[in-house]
UniProtKB/TrEMBL annotation:
Any one Gene Ontology cellular component term annotated for this protein: cytoplasm
One Gene Ontology term of the molecular function aspect: 2-dehydropantoate 2-reductase activity
Alphabetical UniProt keywords: NADP, Oxidoreductase, Pantothenate biosynthesis
Family affiliation: Belongs to the ketopantoate reductase family.
SUPFAM superfamilies noted in UniProt: 6-phosphogluconate dehydrogenase C-terminal domain-like (SSF48179), NAD(P)-binding Rossmann-fold domains (SSF51735)
Protein role: Catalyzes the NADPH-dependent reduction of ketopantoate into pantoic acid.
Annotated protein name in UniProt: 2-dehydropantoate 2-reductase
Domain of life: Bacteria
Tagged with keyword Oxidoreductase: yes
Length: 309
């Protein structure tokens, strides 16, 4: 299977490197600066489950230069998706299917409308990783998992083939024909986790230490669970309680990647997470006041350091 990874940041870089390590034919479709960095330094992953160093990873800046592609792993941030659509169009027209690893759910509607429902696979990745100043992927912890499955029956055979390819790589793979529930479970959780930590400038231990803060966390989870149900997704009955109890299990000082990005003055995915939830709630005539509050408190910081310019 010929695989193109769109983006070679922490997520795309990690899973793409693992697939290349396993023998898959992987090309990284990246911007000019990242291509130059990969050419000069290679693709390096530092991980507790095994380092990887690919001296000469296959790269492309233009999708026209990729002769064959069966699958595109979309590893971008949501705010880069619109600009990438022309690149994706070339590959889909050559027969590729798309497996997005983006946060949120609105991008599925965008991709399905643009390229056809049959060409979009449902996917969730779970990993804690970052990119350092040298372009090295730093994978912390042992969590590295991909959950995927068809969103349309016509994609089932392709997913079965993909399962065999992903199974060879050094990360956990789960093929789930009800992947939409998994997508929503992650979205509902991350919208709350990122929202409360970022809006409140809080770590998990501080949220858990105060009833008032923990209650905000609970109310936000309840709102997201109701929203998931309204869209047809099925979350486990214990979703809210499980995530509230989970606060005490994080290491002291733990927080979300959005909160870390805010501290660094980076662009925040508030529109695709909390903003997306508000738009979906309006479509389903639901009220999500806690999510709206979190959104309002984070929105001024969306552009990161651009605020200071």
């Amino acid at each position: 299977m010929n695989i193109t990874v769109l983006g070679a940041g922490a997520t795309g870089g990690y899973f793409g490197a693992r697939l290349a390590e396993s023998g898959a034919n992987v090309t990284f479709l990246v911007r000019q600066n990242r291509a130059a960095q990969l050419k000069a330094k290679g693709l390096v992953v530092k991980s507790v489950i095994g380092d990887i160093s690919i001296a000469e990873p296959q790269t492309a800046v233009n999708s026209e230069d990729i002769p064959a592609c069966d699958l595109v792993i979309v590893g971008l941030k949501n705010y880069h998706l619109a600009a990438s659509l022309p690149q994706l169009k070339v590959l889909v027209e050559r027969g590729a299917k798309l497996l997005p690893f983006l946060n949120g759910v609105e991008h599925y509607e965008i991709l399905q409308k643009e390229f056809g429902r049959e060409n979009v696979i449902g996917g969730v990745c779970k990993i804690i990783a970052t990119l350092d100043s040298e372009g090295t992927v730093i994978h912390t912890g042992k969590l590295a998992q991909v959950i995927f499955g068809e969103l349309e029956p016509s994609s089932k055979e392709f997913c079965q083939q993909l399962e065999q390819v992903l199974a060879k790589a050094n990360f956990k793979t789960i093929y789930n024909d009800k992947v939409w529930n998994e997508i929503w479970a992650k979205y509902a959780f991350i919208s709350v986790f990122s929202g409360v930590t970022t809006a409140g400038d809080l770590t998990t231990d501080l949220i858990d230490a105060h009833d008032a803060s923990r209650n905000v966390y609970r109310r936000a989870l309840e709102e997201m669970k109701s929203l998931a149900t309204a869209t047809g997704a099925v979350l486990i009955e214990e979703f809210v309680d499980q995530n509230v109890v989970g606060l005490s299990k994080y290491q002291k000082g733990s927080t979300s990647s959005m909160h870390q990005d805010k501290r660094k003055g980076l662009f925040l995915e508030v529109e695709s997470l909390q903003g997306g939830a508000i738009r979906l709630a309006h479509r389903h005539n639901l009220q999500v006041p806690t999510i709206e509050t979190l959104y309002g408190l984070i929105k001024p910081y969306e552009q990161g350091n651009a605020l200071q310019k």
